[in-house]
């Protein structure tokens, strides 16, 4: 399996610079296209599943994280507070290490009825971790993270269904991305860790997640020492070519923060009740997800995710007008197409240069004359020449469906 750090640079997806800083990669145009497309897929999947999207600031007062518990349990991994104003002892703000305190504050800013629950709140937001230089690497361990995060505020009776639905969203996303989990892990507290001291809440949370996994039929392992400080979680693990595991997706049940932030809803009895907070991330951090995709696919991303989806190859200068028109039709259909003309070398050289592009449309004299396309697929197949409009429509349909198939033979 390729190393995403080497391949990502070779393919001009991302890079780093000492002047910007370690653990702070920047995204080049093709990498930005992959990232943007992945983010739009997740936002659309969340909208379809009933999530409402919010934006929250990447800064928060120190008191916010003291209230949430992050400061007492997690301050070693946080960037130091910034003093606002010239006087010492003034207001301090912190780059957030997590989005959940912000979402808890957003929830409590309005009154809620039981009829609104489950209330599903999602954000693709930035967060920051003060990682030591020695553990940083490529996109898998960074200091500035774009997290696909969501929090579901629900009743106790709704937790199992919401957690199960999150696992199903993860399954569908992995199918579209062409990746597979290495294992499912029930992450529990371990001896000596910094955990919230609430044995009864831990017992209830663990029982709920165990029931969700058992009902799902998924094989899983219970592992001590891997829980969040406020509760247990289901971690979906992926592995690189060397067998090293990392967590990509999570589902967590949290009774702690609803108490800390005094969250409530009005029940059918007219009284105040405490919601449960389900934390859920489909692809985790965008950086880690893209790193894994680069390595799994060797840069040959599924067609819907590829930076360039179709390259148009006129055989000679004479076919350039028809080739340019084909690129424009691709743009009208929302396809990312590029023209690779004879100035880039022989047809064979251009085909080899575009080996990672899902579709190659060769335009010779015959195709230019009758409006057809001789298509070459990345996997070596060559469908029979078809009318250009029909070919593009079939490609667009596969991409819109987020299919990992390059061609529908039907």
TrEMBL record:
It comes from the Bacteria. It catalyses: tRNA(Thr) + L-threonine + ATP = L-threonyl-tRNA(Thr) + AMP + diphosphate + H(+). Keywords: Aminoacyl-tRNA synthetase, ATP-binding, Cytoplasm, Ligase, Metal-binding, Nucleotide-binding, Protein biosynthesis, Zinc. InterPro entries: aa-tRNA-synt_IIb, aa-tRNA-synth_II, aa-tRNA-synth_II/BPL/LPL, Anticodon-bd, Anticodon-bd_dom_sf, Thr-tRNA-ligase_IIa, ThrRS_core. GO terms for molecular function: threonine-tRNA ligase activity. Gene3D superfamilies: Anticodon-binding domain, Bira Bifunctional Protein, Domain 2. Residues 29-302 form the Aminoacyl-transfer RNA synthetases class-II family profile domain. The keyword Protein biosynthesis applies. Its EC number is 6.1.1.3. Belongs to the class-II aminoacyl-tRNA synthetase family. NCBIfam families: thrS. This is Threonine--tRNA ligase. It comes from Streptomyces luomodiensis. The lineage of its organism: Bacteria, Bacillati, Actinomycetota, Actinomycetes, Kitasatosporales. The gene is thrS.
